[in-house]
């Protein structure tokens, strides 16, 4: 039998709080998704003005980061044309996202969930995702 | 040009608060989804212990209730074998849910969003969805 | 509660009129799709001779332009190999189109819908989509 | 942070051993799927002669039993025409199986995974799934 650590709903809300605060600061209304370590949704928030397409993209970024235990921007770098991982973005029904903005949430070296942001540029999404993680890690 | 009223993220959180309170009262950890009037997700919460399958089912119930402007239990009654609507539950990629627990959110006679609950029996899901709406309507 | 502006069916027909006129002028029978600001279809027309595949592609272009509030040719530029947005074209079930020919319809600085053209070259599709928007804006 | 118990690959193999032994006894080559408590596949075996369609059906049964924490034959009973849960079998992309043969694996009152069998009659599938669980529980 394995023992797994997983974000709770309270943890998920802290991650969202941190990401939302940074999104507000930079003036970009975001879609924010938090998944558990299996990639299953725990919490989601679309700030007023967040994009419709981003409701799905944010979830897919969080899913990928958690379930593949890899930041989506790292997948992006690894899956460029010419690489043997090129094409991986169509896998898992197209849900494997290689667009920057998805980060695994890591506690004591273990992936316990994922956070995905979408509605800004990939760089802005990554920035707010990191802010969510920083806020969460500071709280524990 | 049309003018549409739509739930804000703050409205969505009030709906979730009301549904969560009732779910806590009856002791069933629920998945709770809120969509806008087009069926696009605004907010989602999986209470600790909510079912994995319910993360999708709750969203589909809210989507259906808002986008078809009909409670999912009303669809259930209308789509039983022998009815001309029988079979509608496989439409829209299977997202058209006819399982009780999805309710349209109606303000001044207009559908402004949807709420979907899943993890209990359909009756429990319906009960908590209604509690979300009652709490929201009492707040405006 | 939010208040949203959205194209009506009459608006959608004016957009199609403008796009069809230009398509006729350049001699390319087009598929023309109009969505609301959430990406949901309002009106669609396949001119005699429009391509079968384009019935879907035109809808996806209009969906993307409206729901992501961005022209599909701008996504094309942003999602080239080497970019952090590379790979986004498989998202939302592959519906997020980065092929030129989808434009958001913007009134008073707000996205109120989307128009998507398909059957010609991307340049021709973009040209006719813009003609639809020009015709619509001149009418209001 | 939550702490979750989950089947290991060694546990999964014991479950398969038990199910395979019973399938051999009744002379029905089976597809046997084991998932973790989130419904993600851990192990799969198609006995020589197992049905092609059953490679998917067995996975969906194990997924449902684990992720919804309910035996698929219990869902079958709950989702008959006339019930408010009627129609649930098309949810989660049609993966929510209500065909007998999927059982949750429960240890100390907690669902730690799921087992799904397919290729026989539902009754035979249920029989072999139970044999897998009996063999596993006897081993711990």
Automatic annotation (TrEMBL), chains A, B, C, D:
According to the UniProt entry, the coiled-coil residues are none
Q: Which domain of life is it from?
A: Bacteria
Pfam families of this UniProt entry? HbpS-like
Q: Which InterPro entries match?
A: GlcG_carb_metab_protein, PduO/GlcC-like, PduO/GlcC-like_sf
Membrane-crossing residues?
Answer: none
Q: What is the official name of this protein in its record?
A: DNA polymerase III subunit delta
